């Protein structure tokens, strides 16, 4: 569901705000009558965003708007079917995927998106249950899901499949495909500070990473041109079209507090539903540790989020927030081309280490570009 007018914040009113308030009330996050986006609404939105792994700002933009709409669905509320041009999403899809996985029917990732892999799992379940195998979840399929109990619970078969796919890809970088996503772009500059723009830094870093990956035989694609600024849905769609092995999204951070500083890395994960990209989490840890080991940026660690680029990419994806352009120390480092080279090498090394078996891996911060397995 798309936000009809973009962004809603304190002081706004109208039909869209009334709809947001109504849905928050039905979710039990807001009480009382509200006809305006007030502080109580903003607090409810912040609580929802924190619970759902979204950016916590108390503002309803397109992604939060979609997430609020997704949260209202329970398994059995509606017919679930695969629509290639606009896949259905919601908490009911999350529940369906989790149930199918428990029963041993392969779902690529528990992400709440009814895509082709979920349709295949539903079809296989229907065949096993003697139901019409049409890949659509209707009343008879819901009843069958309710009746069946898994023989064993626990474990992460999706994680095992993901790790096996990495092992089968082999340690060599040559022949692999990586999408590099420079954040923002066009008229969206992102954070600005000390003469730096987030969009410019992200694009420069992307070009440095692209060049290094190309030299190893990796097919590296940038998600945008220098003067373009696609939204996250378009960036995820582009990455999926390339059938990439990995996706790296590049950003810098900023804050009204000039003391805020450091580097953080994010991967797809939803604590509320226990859904995580296992390889994405591993990749995020490798990137974070390599950057921290090679630079003097403060370690702000790795975190699970449900941002669109992380959730909607078929391949493991990470998002980096590399320093604060609003911090004097971080901005000075980011302005230095030699420092950007260090960051680029750290990211390329982390990409290599995703594919290295334990007996061939190197200690964090020790592997150099010339030692990569090409």
From TrEMBL:
Annotated transmembrane regions: none
Domain MurNAc-LAA intervals: 236-352
Annotated keywords: Hydrolase
Organism this protein belongs to: Kribbella pratensis
InterPro entries the UniProt entry points to: MurNAc-LAA_cat, N-acetylmuramoyl_amidase_3, Peptidoglycan-bd-like, PGBD-like_sf, PGBDSf
Gene3D superfamilies from the UniProt entry: PGBD-like superfamily/PGBD (1.10.101.10), Zn-dependent exopeptidases (3.40.630.40)
Domain of life: Bacteria
Identification of the protein by name: N-acetylmuramoyl-L-alanine amidase
Keyword Metal-binding: no
């Amino acid at each position: 569901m798309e936000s009809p007018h973009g962004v809603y914040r304190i002081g706004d009113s109208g039909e869209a705000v009334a709809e947001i308030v109504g849905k928050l009330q039905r979710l039990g996050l807001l009480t009382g009558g509200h006809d305006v986006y007030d502080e109580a609404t903003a607090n409810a939105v912040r609580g929802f965003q924190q619970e759902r792994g979204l950016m916590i700002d108390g503002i309803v933009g397109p992604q939060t708007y979609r997430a609020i709409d997704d949260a209202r669905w329970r398994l059995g509320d509606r017919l679930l079917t695969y629509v290639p041009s606009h896949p259905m999403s919601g908490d009911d899809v999350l529940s369906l995927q989790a149930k199918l996985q428990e029963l041993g029917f392969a779902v690529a990732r528990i992400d709440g998106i009814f895509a082709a892999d979920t349709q295949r799992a539903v079809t296989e379940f229907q065949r096993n249950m003697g139901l019409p195998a049409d890949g659509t979840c209707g009343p008879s399929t819901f009843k069958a899901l309710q009746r069946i109990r898994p023989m064993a619970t626990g474990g992460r078969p999706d994680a095992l499949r993901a790790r096996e796919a990495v092992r089968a890809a082999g340690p060599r970088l040559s022949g692999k495909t990586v999408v590099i996503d420079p954040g923002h772009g066009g008229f969206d500059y992102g954070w600005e500070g000390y003469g730096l723009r987030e969009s410019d830094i992200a694009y420069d870093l992307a070009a440095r990473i692209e060049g290094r990956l190309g030299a190893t035989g990796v097919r590296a694609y940038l998600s945008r041109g220098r003067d373009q600024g696609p939204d996250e849905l378009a960036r995820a769609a582009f990455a999926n079209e390339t059938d990439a092995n990995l996706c790296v999204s590049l950003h810098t951070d900023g804050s009204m507090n000039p003391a805020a500083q450091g580097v953080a890395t994010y991967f797809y994960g939803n604590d509320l539903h226990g859904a995580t990209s296992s390889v994405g989490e591993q990749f995020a840890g490798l990137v974070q540790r390599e950057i921290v080991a090679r630079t003097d940026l403060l370690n702000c660690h790795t975190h699970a989020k449900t941002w669109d680029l992380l959730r909607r990419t078929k391949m493991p994806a990470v998002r980096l927030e590399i320093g604060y352009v609003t911090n004097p120390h971080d901005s000075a480092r980011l302005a230095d081309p030699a420092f950007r080279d260090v960051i680029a090498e750290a990211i390329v090394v982390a990409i290599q280490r995703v594919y290295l078996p334990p007996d061939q891996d190197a200690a964090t911060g020790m592997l150099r570009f010339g030692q990569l397995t090409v």
